[in-house]
Design goal:
Number of strands: 13
Radius of gyration: 28 Å
Order of helices and strands: HHHHHEEEHEEHEHEHHEEHEEHEHEHH
Number of helices: 15
Low-confidence stretches: 1-10, 64-130, 158-170
Shape: elongated
Number of domains: 3
Length: 456
């Protein structure tokens, strides 16, 4: 009980639209006022609450009442701004406990029916004798008011449950405080992060797939990839690269950047909020599965991570069984920009995905410990000729790319002796080079179809 009361006092009032995006935004203001910390600013009667709720749900202005306030004053926003103290640099003490309320998983399915409300009694079919009496009109108004009040109470009950208990029924359990040792220092999280900035490659995929909604994210071209769009239920700003001012304006309570960042970048981010980078002791290959589990630990969503990993494994098993022609064939993924040419090393997101569907990635392009994910590639090189693969997956981002054709390629590629599969769709290339649970599901249709058309 004390934890519940502390949650009500310390946590910001949650937004009903976060539970059900189909609700009108005006309902957020109603619930914010109904759950205000100061009793004097709350609705003074159930009738006032019902009237405000009806106005919000039907997009009609609330009517004044004689028993309490009627409007929603602008001084009580539904999502009050919280000012967070800067995170101390590593070694300067623990990160503060950030105010939070329990996050939710997948948003409830939108209610496609418009809210129903009474606008009067049905027209008479039996003449003047059946005209509504004042008593019947009063009863109708009472029924309508009762229905609206029930809707308001149900909404408030769901929101209060989220507010106090930290998770919807059957959703996330209590959050266990985490101490995570990153390569730039220790991150201490006392409460489940709910305002997350996802910056590194694959970080937005991990956060969204785990059921959280970032307040800001980075993505190639400052555009949410097509395979992530169905998972986004809000409107976070999207940037091509980290912008400290924009990140600070989003007021995150956790910044995630598991990419290859340096100390100055980390310091700038950690001055805004606790910042999660790769683990200090990263002895494992940094696969998307490792990345997902690391982020899930910080977010208190490890069960969801296990479900995602198991689902992906089952999907890859299905792809391998349906495309046995992939089995045992050697393959290399080559990035051609028109000015530079590199091969994806192994392990890397491209090599890991291709191996997961049955190919043998060319070990000539072995990645050195701590080395880059891309290594130089020269199709005219004697070593390459000696290590030729059965399949070359050519990822084209050069100016002449488009349509999956050979136009603009050097002659050596057009005369490649094995199977040359050209990929010039930016979304497919992005998914292959970043990885993630949603990216993997996307590749299982787009890329696998392309490969299957040429490999029999």
């Amino acid at each position: 009980m004390s934890a519940m009361l502390a949650g009500h006092l310390m946590r910001p009032v949650p937004r009903p639209t976060d539970v059900n995006p189909a609700l009108p935004p005006a309902i957020n203001d109603v619930i914010a006022r109904a759950l205000a910390k100061d009793p004097a600013t709350r609705f003074q009667t159930a009738g006032a609450l019902a009237a405000a709720t009806a106005a919000a749900l039907t997009n009609h202005p609330a009517q004044p009442t004689t028993t309490g306030p009627s409007g929603i004053p602008g001084s009580h926003p539904s999502n009050p701004t919280l000012t967070y103290p800067p995170t101390p640099p590593p070694g300067a003490g623990s990160a503060p406990g950030w105010p939070a309320y329990g996050p939710h998983g997948t948003a409830a399915a939108p209610n496609h029916g418009a809210p129903q409300h009474f606008t009067g009694t049905p027209p008479s079919l039996d003449g003047p004798d059946s005209a509504p009496t004042p008593q019947r009109r009063k009863r109708t108004r009472l029924i309508a008011a009762a229905a609206v009040l029930v809707a308001a109470l149900l909404t408030a009950t769901v929101v209060v449950g989220l507010h106090l208990f930290g998770h919807p029924s059957g959703g996330l359990g209590p959050y266990e405080p985490q101490t995570l040792n990153t390569k730039f220092g220790t991150v201490k999280l006392e409460h489940r992060p709910v305002a997350i900035a996802a910056l590194g490659p694959g970080d937005p995929d991990a956060v969204l797939s785990l059921g959280a909604q970032p307040v800001l994210m980075n993505a190639a071209g400052a555009t949410v990839p097509s395979w992530l769009q169905p998972l986004v239920h809000s409107s976070p700003p999207v940037f091509a690269a980290a912008d400290p001012k924009a990140i600070a304006a989003a007021k995150p309570d956790l910044i995630i950047d598991t990419g290859d960042i340096d100390q100055p970048t980390y310091n700038a981010l950690a001055a805004i909020a606790p910042t999660l980078t790769q683990p200090a002791d990263n002895s494992q290959d940094w696969s998307w599965q490792t990345q997902l589990n690391w982020i899930a630990t910080a977010l208190g969503r490890t069960d969801a991570a296990k479900t995602l990993v198991d689902k992906a494994q089952a999907e890859q098993n299905t792809v391998r069984s349906e495309h046995r022609s992939f089995q045992g064939k050697s393959i290399v993924a080559v990035n051609y920009t028109g000015t530079t040419t590199t091969a994806a090393a192994t392990p890397s997101p491209p090599s890991s995905y291709l191996e997961s569907i049955g190919f043998n990635y060319n070990t000539h392009y072995k990645r050195s410990p701590g080395g880059p994910a891309q290594v130089p590639f020269n199709i005219n090189d004697v070593d390459y000729i000696a290590q030729r693969s059965d399949v070359m997956l050519l990822l084209r981002t050069d100016p002449a790319a488009g349509g999956g054709g050979y136009a603009g390629l050097p002659a050596k590629y057009t005369s490649f002796g094995g199977t040359l599969v050209i990929i010039d769709d930016p979304a497919t290339i992005n998914a292959l080079t970043t990885g993630g649970p949603a990216a993997t599901s996307y590749l299982n249709t787009t890329l696998v179809t392309k490969l299957a058309n040429q490999i029999h």
